[in-house]
């Protein structure tokens, strides 16, 4: 299998995006996110996403050069207007201010409005954790998930991610869709000609299915039944309704298809553990006791496997298939 370094993969993806028409700001931010997915073994958020990025640009549904505009009223809420561009550059523009404001006030929020979303959320909460604050990030998507007990798409996959800073180790991070699986996982199953596990999806008539094609034409299911459905609804309310942006249903209505990246908003919360603890305890030491207790039972912390893969990728390079490498070269040459 071809092996490529993280730096070289980032450079190759950035060159593809520049060739397609993205400006330097967005090509750089997008390339690092895509390459990070491959580096960390998150294939559903790696170079697989390039097709969707380029399709969305070709359809005129994302701005390749809108500059993020920060609206800071010197409060706990920081707004970033993405201008219809992909979200990574908007997040990076507001990140320093969000982390500083959380350290100052104890809690702060970043609202990203009018952004197009395709990426995982863990890079965001990890970036906050690296600045010493805990982070919680969430966003809607477009309607692809039936509510518990329902039969038709209404909710999005509505991911939610959390990060906790650790002084001498990689941050504690989890990131998951509130659907049984990310939509990208079903698309990868379709590409591979593999059936879905039972309980993942319904077909267009509302019947359970293990056929990826039927699932993509029908509805995914929330994880944990009514519990996942409730959490997904919370994401719609907090990261859609509350911030004056689109819900998943409205995003699908505006876009008209699930083959392009959806346009909506995003909410990121940042917390200062020290400010909340207020001297009553050392929150980082207390957290390490909890993590040690979890590991002491033979359990694994979320993100642990991802960091192991990252370390191996950075030391040995990222393994791509011949087909994946040829696809990158074709995009670069085309």
Under CATH, the topology is which?
Ribosomal Protein S8, Chain: A, domain 1
Taken as a percent bin, the fraction of beta residues is: 15-25%
Outline: globular
- Give the CATH H-level superfamily: Malate/L-lactate/L-sulpholactate dehydrogenase, NADPH binding domain
Low-confidence stretches: none
Protein name: Oxidoreductase
Family: Belongs to the LDH2/MDH2 oxidoreductase family.
GO molecular function: oxidoreductase activity
Keywords: Oxidoreductase
Tell me about this structure.
The structure is a single chain. With 334 residues, the protein is of the alpha+beta class. The chain has a single domain, classed as Ribosomal Protein S8, Chain: A, domain 1, CATH 3.30.1370. Helix content is 46%, strand content 16%. It has 13 helices and 12 strands. The strands form 3 sheets. The protein has a 7-stranded mixed beta sheet, with helices on both faces. Strands 9-8-10 form a 3-stranded antiparallel beta sheet. A two-stranded antiparallel ribbon has the order 1-12. Strand 2 and strand 3 form a beta hairpin. Helix 1 packs across helix 2.
Fold blueprint:
Elements: E1 3-4, H1 6-20, H2 24-39, H3 50-58, E2 69-72, E3 77-81, H4 87-105, E4 107-116, H5 122-130, E5 134-138, E6 160-164, E7 172-176, H6 183-192, E8 201-202, E9 208-209, H7 212-217, E10 219-220, H8 226-241, H9 248-255, E11 263-271, H10 273-277, H11 283-296, H12 304-316, E12 318-319, H13 322-333
Parallel strand pairs: 3-4
Antiparallel strand pairs: 1-12, 2-3, 4-11, 5-6, 5-11, 6-7, 8-9, 8-10
Helix pairs in contact: 1-2
């Amino acid at each position: 299998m071809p092996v490529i370094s993280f730096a070289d993969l980032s450079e190759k993806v950035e060159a593809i995006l520049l060739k397609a028409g993205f400006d330097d700001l967005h090509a750089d931010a997008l390339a690092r996110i895509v390459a990070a997915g491959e580096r960390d073994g998150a294939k559903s958020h790696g170079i697989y996403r390039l097709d969707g990025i380029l399709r969305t640009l070709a359809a005129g549904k994302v701005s390749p050069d809108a500059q993020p505009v920060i609206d800071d009223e010197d409060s706990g809420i920081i707004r970033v207007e993405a201008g219809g561009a992909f979200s990574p550059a908007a997040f990076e523009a507001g990140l320093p201010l969000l982390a500083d404001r959380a350290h100052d006030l104890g809690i702060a929020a970043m609202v990203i409005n009018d952004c197009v979303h395709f990426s995982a959320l863990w890079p965001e909460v990890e970036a906050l954790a690296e600045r010493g604050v805990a982070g919680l990030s969430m966003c809607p998507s477009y309607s692809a998930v039936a509510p518990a007990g329902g039969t038709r798409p209404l909710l999005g996959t509505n991911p939610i991610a959390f990060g906790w800073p650790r002084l001498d180790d990689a941050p504690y991070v989890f990131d998951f869709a509130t659907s049984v699986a990310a939509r990208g996982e079903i698309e990868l199953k379709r590409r591979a000609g593999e059936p879905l596990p039972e309980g993942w999806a319904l077909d267009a008539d509302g019947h359970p299915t293990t056929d990826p094609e039927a699932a993509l034409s029908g509805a995914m299911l929330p994880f944990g039944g009514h519990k996942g459905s409730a959490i997904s609804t919370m994401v719609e309310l907090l990261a859609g309704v509350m911030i004056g942006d689109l819900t998943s249903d409205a995003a699908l209505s505006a876009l008209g298809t699930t083959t392009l990246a959806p346009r909506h908003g995003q909410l990121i919360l940042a917390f200062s553990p020290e400010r909340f603890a207020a001297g009553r305890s050392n929150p980082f030491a207390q957290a390490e006791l909890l993590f040690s207790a979890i590991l002491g039972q033979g359990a694994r912390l979320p993100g642990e496997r991802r960091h192991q893969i990252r370390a191996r990728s950075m030391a040995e390079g990222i393994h791509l298939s011949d087909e994946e490498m040829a696809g990158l070269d074709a995009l670069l040459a085309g």
